[in-house]
Amino acid sequence: MEMFLIIALQLLMEVWSYNIPNIKASPDVLTKSRSFNLTCESPADVTVIQCYFYANRQNENQVVRLSPCHLSLTGAEVLSWTGVKSPVSLDIGCYYTTDVRGVHKPSPHSPPATLTILNALKKPVISVKESAALLSIKCEIPASVRADFICNLYTEDGSLTHRSHSQKSQSRKHFCPFYLSPDEIFADEQTNNSRELSCDYVLNIKPAEMSPRSDTYTIRDVTKTPHRSADYTGVGLTVPLLSAALGICMCVIMGLICIHQCIHHSSPMMNNSSEDSVQSSEYPHMKVSPDVVRESNSVHLTCESPADVTVIQCYFYANGNKEKDIKVSPSCHLSLTGAEVLSWTGVKSPVSLDIGCYYTTDVRGVHKPSPHSPPATLTILSLPQAVLRASSSVITDTDTVQMDCMNRENQKMDTCFFTVDGMESNMKESRSCQLSLTGSDIIHWSGGQRSSVIITCFYSVYKSQVLISSPYSEPVTVAVWTVLHFCPFF
User: Fold this and answer.
1) What are the DSSP calls for 242-291, one per residue?
2) What CATH number is given for 285-381 in this structure?
3) In degrees to the nearest 10, what's the CA dihedral of 129, 131, 135, 140?
4) Do 364 and 452 touch, CB atoms closer than 8 A?
5) pLDDT confidence of residue 324
6) How many Cα neighbours within 13 Å face the side chain of 83?
7) What is the pLDDT of residue 186?
8) What fold is seen in the domain 19-118?
9) Which residues form the signal peptide (predicted)?
10) Among candidates 427, 431, 404, which has minimal Cα distance to 416?
């Protein structure tokens, strides 16, 4: 008897799982004017009468189609059907009916497929953080739903310079980062002292849909800008040079009588020049190695002083903030993680910072500060996004699903956290970054309200007693079907 029940239950589970349909949306991201196709796929040997499509588990607004189970709609028609406004992401599901002794018997429901509908693509906003060593360029995309974009960066002649994939900031905004050196932008010797940059983005579907071009941003090549100290001719003459020239002219005209006045007029320029040369030789040099790091990586900051200068201690600061949040080092060297730099400066990644420094020397018992160094740019990237893998997307309440939280860059992970249906208050923690649950466990975890749940994960890294968290993974849907237990009569 027990063996018979086990075999019957196993057969029932196999039949139940076998009859589950699969829904396909192609493409799964589109604008209101674009068309897409929905297909409710059933097993090949099942004779389907008709199919039912619904959105966000709302069965009252079903769309019915006779076999073959195919639906072709525009984004605008889907919005009208579901009664929502774009931009929006919808979970589309389906089931079918078969004829069982003259009765229309419904199949199990499919796991949902996500469909994202965007408004007409708007032009992005380009911003640039400039420094002598690195240009941190951001192409911000005005879209708040889940979608993949590719950004293009252009110069004023329309030529494509670089391409970048979109990321999500902690405020859930899409943007594409570009990190370029000025040499890459001004590589052509014939290039003017300025360049016009702009960007656009492409919705990653087939056929691709491109946004309008952003407004332009002008950057200037500081290496080709003449220095004031070199302007010895024309209107570029500086006041000290002009004063000296007048003094020399007066000396030539009036002869020896004006020698004293000549020397008097010329001496300010000579003194200033001498002082400038001394100041220039005392400038420290700021070194950042490496200049692009993750939050979990270490960066070395060094304030280099002239070899013949006896330094008491060095002072480091960020983004020109020379009066507060200064770090002091007698060795003129700092070793910090990216996370510690973010904590020090009070900003969030991804970000580019201008790090500067100066040092002090002893002049007759007084600590005399040096001139400030030219800034060096440090770019801090967030941790790689978490990636969630599930061994199965459809299980019964007695089956087990294995979930693995990982990342694509072999970033070391200390602890992983799994969430169900976005409930951060009910997270599961795993040091192995793996989670093995039965269908019943998942239903209990989600509060028992739904047979289909959305699971995400993220990981954390401890570095120098600082906890760093990664961006959330893309969601994974797991459908749990409850097996009906029958008691046979003999």
Assistant:
1) HHHHHHHHHHHHHGGGGHHHHHHHHHHHHHHHHHHHHHHHT--EEEEESS
2) 2.60.40.10
3) 0
4) no
5) 73
6) 6
7) 76
8) Immunoglobulin-like (2.60.40)
9) 1-17
10) 431
Rg (C-alpha) for the chain, rounded Å, is 34
- Thinking of the domain 125-224, which architecture would CATH place it in? Sandwich (2.60)
What residues pair up with 139 in beta bridges, in sequence order?
A: 126, 176
Question: Measured in whole angstroms, how far is the alpha carbon of residue 143 from the centre of its chain?
Answer: 14
Q: Who contacts 158 (Cβ-Cβ below 8 Å, separation ≥6)?
A: none
b (16+ CB within 10 A) / e for 66-105: eeebebebbbeebbebbeeebbbbbbbbbbbbbeeeeeee
Q: What is the pLDDT of residue 7?
A: 54
Instruction: Find all residues with CB under 8 Å of 160, minimum gap 6, and list them.
Output: 152, 153, 154
Which parts of the chain have pLDDT scores under 50? 13-17, 225-280, 490
Q: How far apart are CA 230 and CA 273, in angstroms?
A: 13
| Of the candidates 34, 224, 218, the residue with the CA atom closest to the CA atom of residue 127 | 218
Per DSSP, 81 falls in state H
Instruction: Report domain extents, the chain.
Output: 19-118, 125-224, 229-280, 285-381, 386-481
Task: Identify the pLDDT of residue 2.
Answer: 59
pLDDT score for 274:
38
pLDDT (tens digit per residue) in 121-180: 889 999 998 776 677 888 998 876 666 788 889 888 777 678 877 777 666 678 888 877
Asked whether the beta carbons of 48 and 67 are under 8 A apart, the reply is yes
